[in-house]
Amino acid sequence: MFVAVGVGVTVTLNANIAEATTEGWNVLDPADVDRLKATKICTGCRLYGADLRSEDLAGADLVGADLTGANLTGAIWPDYRICNEGSIGECR
After folding, report:
1. Cα torsion at 35, 88, 65, 51 (round to 10°)?
2. Cα separation of 88 and 51, whole Å?
3. CA torsion through residues 26, 68, 79, 52, sign
4. Which of 48, 51, 43 is nearest to 75 (CA)?
5. How confident is the model at residue 36 (pLDDT cuts 50, 70, 90)?
6. Is residue 45 a contact partner of residue 32, using CB atoms and an 8 Å limit?
7. Which residues contact 39 (CB under 8 A, 6 or more apart)?
8. Cα–Cα distance between 85 and 51 in angstroms, integer?
9. pTM attached to this predicted model
């Protein structure tokens, strides 16, 4: 793909590079949600946008988990806090 940037300047973009760097990024993996609920061990899991409202996550191992956009309202956090209304992506 060619993009004209300015007078006499053209930049070549490689669409395959863009696809390769974003593939699998910020994607919910339903198997990770199932594993979290079954074992409370989910290191490095992709929980992007997961509905974890009112889930008991007390003592869970979430090191490196991507919780971006996950709804945690009412969830019991690994440190036994209860996440407040509007806890999206982090327990508040």
Report:
1. 20
2. 10
3. negative
4. 51
5. very high
6. yes
7. none
8. 13
9. 0.72
